[in-house]
Each structure stands twice: as C-alpha cells, then as structure tokens.
Amino acid sequence: MSNIIITGCSTGIGLETALYLKEKFITVYPTARDIKDVEKLKTLGFEYAMQLDVREARQIKTVIESVLQKEGHIDVWFNNAGYGQPGAIEDVRTEVLREQFETNVFGMHECTKQIIPVMRKQGYGKIIQHSSVLGLISLFGRGAYNASKYAIEGLTDTLRLELHGSGIYAVLLNTGPITSHFRENAMKKLTENVDIEHSIFTKKYIQSLHADKSSVPFNEEAVAVAKTVHKIVLAPKPKPRYYITKATYLLGYLKRILSTSALDRILQKIS
C-alpha cells in the first residue's frame, strides 16, 4: 500500500485530496500549519495528522522522521501548501513579496530538499509540486503569486533533469480555478497588505473584493485535483506535468501558439 505526505491540508485542495486518497486505501499523512486544523484532521479519521509549517525546517524534519519510524519508507510527497497574495506589483511591498516566497517557494524547496535524500536511499519516490495555470501565464494583480509559481516551474523543471535515472519523479500540477477557500484567503491578504484606498487601481481592487466567485469560467471542484493526485500515486511512471481544469488547457495552448502581444490582449480582458 502506498503512502503520501500532504502539506497544507487545513481546507480546500489539501483536505479534499487527503479525504479522497483515504477512501482509495492510500495511507495518508496530512499536515497543517495550525494545531486546531491538525485536531480537525484527527476528528476526520486521520490518526497520524501532524503539524507542519513549511517555513520551519525543523518541523519538516520531524514529520519525515515520524513517518519513516512508522512506515520505513515515504512513497509520495505532495507540496500543496501555499496562498495567493493579490495586488499590483507597484502596490506590493517587498516584505510582502518576500513572505509570499517564504511559503510558496522557499517552504516548498525546503520540503523537497529534505525528502530527496530519503527517496534516493529508497531508490524511488514521487514529489508532486503544486504549481498553477498562473505558473504558465500571468494575470493583472497577481504578480506576487505569479512570480512564486513561475519559480516553482523553474525549480521543478531543473529538478526533473537532476533526478533522471534515480527512480524519483518530480511532477508539476498546473491547476486552474478550483472551488476552495483560496480566493477568500487571497482577498484577506489583499486588504491586509495593500493600501487599496490610495492605489491607482482602487476601482479594480473593489471590483475584485465584490466579485461573484461562482461565476469564474471553467471552475471545477477540488476533487478534480484529488483524482489527479491519485492517478500519480498509482502510476509506475507519472507524467512530468498534469493540467487540471479546461482553463489550464486553453491558456496553456494559447501561450504556445500566440505571440506575447496577442496573448497579452487576451489576458487584459480576463483581468
């Protein structure tokens, strides 16, 4: 039976994936940053749910050691933890951008860096990196998040080359719009970290805050990601990249065939 460690399981995609895989008889070790969310996971039947803030290297080490002690091996690590920081680039303070990278990029990197030696020793393993459609294309007001996902793309594309022949697979998920608490949390970050009132983009920010999230085109439920992760867990040789939602397929295709100027015209309308 395969096992998997998943980061960022408090809500949304992480939680849905943990629940789905559990039903498929995969041994799941879900983690969450806040202890209250760990306790919630335990009430849902995840006996070995653990606290993990991916920004804390020591906590990552503890999780790995705990699972190895119980299982003797780790088959799959899913780097799912992350959040979105909205705001036009000129409105995002450097310390806010740095914090976005601390979780989305540096936290992911530390997890990856610590799990690779374990998998090299085993001679096998799968590392799933949660990127986004915004790791392929950019949208107005998503600069910090876009940059973090582009960084994940670069790191993982390089890692795949470096792991060639090791039996370890680095896999990218390019997820489009998914029903979760992601947008709600992002709007909180917008109000906390951006001076909306004094921005040249005040009107756009207000529109975003009052937008109907149910009207997002091509939106899918979080189980779409869970099903893809399950497919990766079972695959002897997973693909290097999986698109999730029609939006990712469409925008990924347009990125390949259109000039930069032509694609920009389309993305301006989406924004």
Task: Give a quick set of tags describing it.
alpha/beta; Rossmann fold; seven-stranded parallel sheet; 271 residues; 7 strands
What order do the helices and strands come in, and which of them pair?
Elements lengths: L2 E4 L5 H12 L3 E6 L2 H9 L6 E2 L5 H15 L4 E4 L14 H29 L2 E6 L12 H20 L5 E8 L6 H12 L8 H8 L13 H12 L6 E4 L1 H12 L2 H11 L1
Parallel strand pairs: 1-2, 1-4, 2-3, 4-5, 5-6, 6-7
How many strands, what sense, and barrel or not for the largest sheet?
7 strands, parallel
**What name does the CATH topology carry?**
Rossmann fold
- Approximate helicity band: 40-55%
Major sheet: order of its strands? 3-2-1-4-5-6-7
Q: Determine the number of helices (DSSP H or I, runs of at least 4 residues).
A: 10
Instruction: Look at the structure and name the CATH superfamily.
Output: NAD(P)-binding Rossmann-like Domain
Overall structural class, as computed from helix and strand content, comes to alpha/beta
Write down the Rg.
18 Å
Rough outline: globular
SSE order, one letter for each helix or strand: EHEHEHEHEHEHHHEHH
Calculate the terminal CA-CA distance, rounded to whole Å. Answer: 44 Å
Low-confidence stretches: none
The CATH architecture term is 3-Layer(aba) Sandwich
- In percent, how much strand structure appears in the residues? 5-15%
**On the 0-100 scale, what is the average pLDDT?**
96
Question: CATH top level?
Answer: Alpha Beta
**How many strands appear in the DSSP assignment?**
7
Count structural domains.
1
